[in-house]
Amino acid sequence: MSETEKCRFTVEEMTGVWGIIPTTSTPEAADPLYDGIAVDTDEARRAVNLLIDDGADGILTNGTFGEEATLTYEEWKTYVTAVIETAKGRIPIFIGTTMQSTRETIERMKFVRDLGATGTMLGRPMWCQLSAEAMLEYYTDCANAVPELAIVIYDNPEAFKGRITAETYAKLAKIPQVVGAKYMGVDDLYHECIAAVDGGIRLLTLERDWKEAFDIYPETALAAWAGSASCGMLPCTTIRDLVMGGHDEQAKALTKRIFWSYETFFPNGSFKEFSKYNIPLEKERFNAAGYIKAGPTRPPFGLMPDSYLQGTIEAARRWNQLGDEIRNGDFDV
Fold it and tell me: Which of 88, 110, 182, 293 does the annotation list as catalytic?
């Protein structure tokens, strides 16, 4: 492999808190007949600068609430160009490129590579559930085609019809470009996967689970992801500093408050039910928090029960209250 083909990022570099931002939409995005580019590029640039200025260690985008599946190709190109050009290499930027075919995925990977992205947050084609063998082939083909881009696996069991097994993770860890995985939960499978990858992939937990993971795996649980970063970075950077700085009691207390902030966010406490309305729940939470103007959800995913809407608005209020508590010195580092 030549110098120009070397992967731009390594697993050792994947540390800290990684904020996830939505594709910022103009009002026209909610109109199924609109045939223009309904992307608020000014807000996208503001969002990137905001997260960088407020301490994010990396940015992920164009997953589920990044609306990778519902953006037109021209909208996607417009949005990711704004994000990458604004970042200017100040922190790592991983862009979602997941499509329904390997060929389309590779096409998008090449586009963001040429713009200067660090890597891609890559799920897997979801029309049919992929076998373990097909999954391994997919990630291998994508990595070989665009070896400069690092890959964070987007491991969403509801979106992609099943969880990735520890055995499969062990094989994926042998692909040099696969440096991380956006993971959900600290459960028995998480522990199996940690053992299987043997340090070869950084399994990023949700920020609320970071303390639990770090207590067990202090040498490998060195990063977390946070969709809530788009409600405000302060709780995210504070939990990072508390966990990584060894401030045990403060980290426990803040973790408890972060869990409190999520209580009304997951309908009936169910991730499966949440996943049916993932996009509008997230975007309306961001809109209510007021940190980033996410805009409306693209059809056909914009509808949800009013009780769920009220729950996500309350979750935004709680996140803002948590930020105020931190500013008041309740969780001093």
Answer: 182
